[in-house]
Amino acid sequence: MWQNGGTAFKPDANILRHLKAKRQKQRVLAEVKLRCLWGHSKNFEDLDTFHRAIRPYLCLAQIFGIMPLSNVLSRDPQEVKFRMRSMGMVFTVVFLLLGGLKTIIVADRLLTVGLNAKNMVGLFFFIMGMIICASFVSFARCWSRLIVPWSCLDILMLFPPYIPPKRSLKYKLRLLGTCLSIVAMVEHALYYASGYYSYRMHVLHCHTNHSRITFASYVQKEFADIFEIIPYNIISVFYAFFLNGTFTFIWNFMDLFIMLVSLGLAQRFQQFARRVLKLANCFVPDALWSDIRMDHVRLCELLELVDFSMSVIILISCLNNVYFICNALLAIFTKLRYTINYIYFWYSLIFLLTRTFLVFLCASQINEASRLPLKALYMIPSESWSQEVQRFAQQITNEYIALSGCRLFYLTRKSFFGMMATLVTYEFMLLQLDAKNRRAGLPELCT
Amino acid sequence: MWQNGGTAFKPDANILRHLKAKRQKQRVLAEVKLRCLWGHSKNFEDLDTFHRAIRPYLCLAQIFGIMPLSNVLSRDPQEVKFRMRSMGMVFTVVFLLLGGLKTIIVADRLLTVGLNAKNMVGLFFFIMGMIICASFVSFARCWSRLIVPWSCLDILMLFPPYIPPKRSLKYKLRLLGTCLSIVAMVEHALYYASGYYSYRMHVLHCHTNHSRITFASYVQKEFADIFEIIPYNIISVFYAFFLNGTFTFIWNFMDLFIMLVSLGLAQRFQQFARRVLKLANCFVPDALWSDIRMDHVRLCELLELVDFSMSVIILISCLNNVYFICNALLAIFTKLRYTINYIYFWYSLIFLLTRTFLVFLCASQINEASRLPLKALYMIPSESWSQEVQRFAQQITNEYIALSGCRLFYLTRKSFFGMMATLVTYEFMLLQLDAKNRRAGLPELCT
Amino acid sequence: MWQNGGTAFKPDANILRHLKAKRQKQRVLAEVKLRCLWGHSKNFEDLDTFHRAIRPYLCLAQIFGIMPLSNVLSRDPQEVKFRMRSMGMVFTVVFLLLGGLKTIIVADRLLTVGLNAKNMVGLFFFIMGMIICASFVSFARCWSRLIVPWSCLDILMLFPPYIPPKRSLKYKLRLLGTCLSIVAMVEHALYYASGYYSYRMHVLHCHTNHSRITFASYVQKEFADIFEIIPYNIISVFYAFFLNGTFTFIWNFMDLFIMLVSLGLAQRFQQFARRVLKLANCFVPDALWSDIRMDHVRLCELLELVDFSMSVIILISCLNNVYFICNALLAIFTKLRYTINYIYFWYSLIFLLTRTFLVFLCASQINEASRLPLKALYMIPSESWSQEVQRFAQQITNEYIALSGCRLFYLTRKSFFGMMATLVTYEFMLLQLDAKNRRAGLPELCT
Amino acid sequence: MWQNGGTAFKPDANILRHLKAKRQKQRVLAEVKLRCLWGHSKNFEDLDTFHRAIRPYLCLAQIFGIMPLSNVLSRDPQEVKFRMRSMGMVFTVVFLLLGGLKTIIVADRLLTVGLNAKNMVGLFFFIMGMIICASFVSFARCWSRLIVPWSCLDILMLFPPYIPPKRSLKYKLRLLGTCLSIVAMVEHALYYASGYYSYRMHVLHCHTNHSRITFASYVQKEFADIFEIIPYNIISVFYAFFLNGTFTFIWNFMDLFIMLVSLGLAQRFQQFARRVLKLANCFVPDALWSDIRMDHVRLCELLELVDFSMSVIILISCLNNVYFICNALLAIFTKLRYTINYIYFWYSLIFLLTRTFLVFLCASQINEASRLPLKALYMIPSESWSQEVQRFAQQITNEYIALSGCRLFYLTRKSFFGMMATLVTYEFMLLQLDAKNRRAGLPELCT
Q1: Nearest CB neighbour to C432, from listed D297, D394, D430
Q2: D198: part of which helix (H) or strand (E)?
Q3: Are C117 and B432 in contact (CB < 8 Å)?
Q4: pTM summary value
Q5: With an 8 Å Cβ cutoff, are A378 and B387 in contact?
Q6: Which of A64, A83, B123, C218 is the most exposed place for a label (fewest CB within 10 A)?
Q7: How far apart are CA D294 and CA D307, in angstroms?
Q8: Separation of alpha carbons A279 and B26, rounded Å
Q9: Are residues C246 and C95 in contact, defined by beta-carbon separation less than 8 angstroms?
Q10: What count of Cα atoms within 13 Å lies in the side-chain half-sphere of residue A234?
Q11: Angle CA A102–A103–A105, to nearest 5
Q12: C-alpha pair distances (Å), B284 with each of A317, B276, B291, D51
């Protein structure tokens, strides 16, 4: 019986994936049948699946050259696939080339000046942009393997006995995306405002030729590295702004994407918990408990699949956030010249901290929702308590269900606290050093 | 059966609260009936409930403008509610206005001088006062939702089979409150004493005009920021002292309040443990075990309700304590001029450490008491061991019952040790830096 | 049935102790009977109990003024009790007075010079001596409550079905004690040797009057604080050396005592594990498993009793060791003048690290031995697996059996690793600072 | 029944080993019989055992003087034994003597110059080489006790119902060994290249006598300590290079060896998991579950045996890696003169980090593979769920299966993350200090 299928197992390290792949295929088939029964693909479109909710973000990402997928607008998750020859891929290659060029120019400049802890941050920003883009391309390759089983599970959980949530997933994701985008755009605008004001003041005080106080001359200084290569005209200015904007977009999109995926998963775990909680005081036959437990296993498998594909992105996101927060903390007591510089610095720091917090908060909802059914199981009266329920309880207790960064750490509140505790300790160290050697005032303006 | 009630579940993230709310309402009804049976509300007053024990502290808090509740003196917990139009709210608004003004003045002064690690502590103190006050207002809104089920549980646990504790809750809370108040008042008095002595000595040595050595002139210097705005007279002096006192009160009250609530909860968990321990060597029918387990679930639900409402206050309290301890550690090797300065510094530091320790100690009693029944369960003979007992044992083992700061950390001995270990490491770093660059003596007195 | 005995429970926080006390008394009675049956108290003396093994150490401790117990040489553990009016107490009071005086002198000297991170270590050493002595007096008060149940358990485990270990407990404790004493004495001698050599060289190079190069003059300099008060003669010299020796003894004895107690407990847990392991492949009736589980509970209760009494001593011991290790690490790159100084410094540091390691190693054996029976339980064939065995397995899995420092941390390998990791990080910080600001050579010899 | 065999247990602390030893001997006997049945020792040789896969590495190690075993080329694991009088031992003694001499010379040189944080690294390298060699000799003594039971288990798992993996163990180990060797050799070559280039440039700029720019003169300078003792000729040059190479080999071999052993163990755990996963949806009789559980126990026992023997090596390896990584991080912002210096520095650092990462990655596979069967157990339908399966599930849940460094820490992803987090924090501290006191440019070349 158990000697039959040695061939079914590719003997590589990732044994489990094969088992899952098999079961997922079965579910895909079931889903295709389901759709045929409905007849109308319009109905399918109306369902509040994660695919429908994430679609606008995938389109947006494609324009900026990350997540190159073909048929990204399609209603059918099976048609959204990674293809080497697609429009998305063209955008990606263009961005990788231009961005790579920019990165090389910045690196070259810094290496001639001499790399140190302070000016490294700029180079780090551009290199990170390249790495993030590459990770997303690699992630896009797994996308269809991910979204098809996810959609199946979504469809399963949009019909009774599961109750759809009051606020649709689409609404939640759109709300989060819109809010974060606005805040990020303000941050990006403040960056230019702060830079331009400083430039303006510098010219006003140190130069006699005040005709240079134009936005154009500021742009020329800000993007000096680009205008060394290509001449200054409206297209090249647009190009310079767009490239900078894209890097900032990528930087923010990574965190936003983790949040969106987390919300999508947490939603399903919450629906599942709600279903179990409703059964708390009812008599439930063993067969139903068995079904419920299998749904739990399916949810966990989906989570593992997502975790497996996104691990690298999560790891990079956390490294990135920790580096930029530390960098900002380092400069927290540096005196700045103008109020706008202060506004930009603090806005930027608080934005960074909030974004990091939101990533952990959204992702930790999965872990929290996954433990909720336990409360219902405690309520079950003695008569209804069976081996099946006990297995379910033990399964929930023993598993650790959360998104992770290459399983090095898990995105939970506890990890966030550990990270914050380290940062606070670090800041206190700086505080103490600051209390010792008080820095002098601002350096001379016109040098 | 389980398809019936989609409407019963508001589909927001906090699923469990609804279930609890429902059950709590049932218990409130049961309690109202209970009271009608007794007939005498006097009897009700005699019961050693947490509501009766915490009442004096709520009154006190109201005078200082935090916890604005109406009918705070009422014997019936259901009548103590948050109302926008109440005397408490007036006090709160007045304090928020005056305190806000003070904070703005202090902030303005510091920003003109230049904010650094050393002078930041004053501003932090006032801003924290504002934040704490706001958190308590927000907490007061949850109060009635909290105290009603708590009182029900209290009443339940004041009658057999539960044995009331030897020392009443009221006595314990009053003892703790009195001791801490006295110590805190001494600390506050020492602050003025230390300041006045330094001022006096400074005038004696550096000024020829010794007529300025009066307490009045010290007050004028100490509250210079206030007397810039309003003229110096007996009322404004009282106002200055009162405002300062209120901030100090709030600062201490927050920690005291966490301790009181912890004691109240720990008491009930201990009573519960005692009941279970008494059953260790008896034959107990399954139905009774089931009842006991349900009481445990009720206790846990109450704890979760409290934790949900107080999380923010606990988080702020810990942040606050850590900051002030670190700040004091930073100054531990600074040379001071007079003995009274040393006395104030060390008294203040030890007070701070003790208060923090007490917060963790009181709160960790909940966690410890919650695990005690396990010992009794180990003693149960084979014959009496049933599935119900096993479920109870597993429940206690798997749950983590403790107050938390937004679930980022739990108030347990282990967390306290982690916090202390970090602080000790930090202090050793300072020690080492101190051993390197020995500071010179005291700066000139008269500059 | 369960309403009968409210009076049996003193309603204080330490509920469990009463239950234990009761059961322990029953066992004491059983043991007294047992002894009557044997008739010969000589036989009792021959038993390898912990009481017999620790006795010489208690005698030694008494001479140095710690652990004041009366009838310390008695063969009957019930007769060894703390009494206010006893010879031991006299020694203790004398030591506390003389030591207190010495501490005050040292403190006074340092405060006039100015306390800093470097000279603090001396004062810390003496204050610690006082605190340790006080903790041991407080511990001595619990001794009889501790040793009587322990002896009962010892007697129980010295007869079949338990197999006495090959090496007797007495032998093990004596071996450890002897080795550590010799190493500690060498360390103490090296301290004087290093001091004397430095003194001698200093006189040789900086003074013309070489007649001062005598041991007597060194002693006068070393104990200058004492000879300021009492005249220099043979008795006062002896007194000076004795007092210094006593402080060093106390310092070492604390750690040794924790090791001895740990070994005593670990021995019993190992015997217990051996018994269970022998049953691995046999058929064992449920009643026997129940007996075995009760023995396990008894062992755990003894451990808890010991932990409750010794917690403070363990906490102090760890704090003490961490402080002195950090202090030594701080000075690791300081240049020393003579080879003997280097020998003393490194010998002392390695001794300190080894002693700390041994404390954790001995204590962690308890935790490790307590988990051994689990291995046997895994081996039990399906037919013999019963609810009783399952309860036993779950009990071992869920409990955390180890000595602790006020339950803030547990004496296990993991804690030791955490401590060492922190120390190594700390040392790396120092290393880095050392790499930056290279210190100049040695300071001038003759200043 | 259970009173019969007190003699079977040597009453030392390591109780479990005896039980294991007994069972392992039984298995050895079974295996010898098995071999007799086959008749052909050639067949035995064809089996993909760990012994066959590790053999080439043992031979290589022997030439460099570590792992002195006799009959290392034998096909029979029982014949590979540690013998005091063997060729391997001669190599080892020679290396220990010559290496010891070199270490003493280096130590002597440094102590005269003055040991500090920067030049310590060289001495540390040589002392570590000596310690590693000694640990391997001590490990070689346990080898035969380790490889015989391992081979038995290997043979067991190479036949049905276990499925041999697609890629043979031999192939995997050879691939890993080859890759790492090449990368390590490049690193070693770069060391000389970087040194030679710096030397050449130094002579070119600072000396008029350019005839000294030969490789021979570089060698004389590089190995100045050796040529002070023995004259410069082709043999002594070879000796100098060989000794240096051997130290580097040992340094790398230790990490490689841990990886190889981890892969060997992880392979078996993966095979085991695959077998269990195949049974997920089948009906399996209890007797088979019992057999499977016993195989699991056997695997765990093998792991414990390996862990017990290799603990010290793992501990030393981690300490070694942490020290060298920290040392490199310390120098990360030091300006270097030539590009080849940068190439060597960064190549070396990345190599070090990768090697450390690989050690943890390989070893963590054991832990991960050991938890895989749990997934299959969750899938078992209610009807097939029996006590035997439940025991299996609880066993996997409760045990912590991983290689450890003296049980102070476990080689898992979590530990690696902890280590990296500490290193990153450390680096941020350096970063901050670097940002403060900017170092001046390069020191003068010709001094």
Answers
A1: D430
A2: helix D169-206
A3: yes
A4: 0.84
A5: no
A6: A83
A7: 20
A8: 19
A9: yes
A10: 0
A11: 65
A12: 55, 10, 11, 59
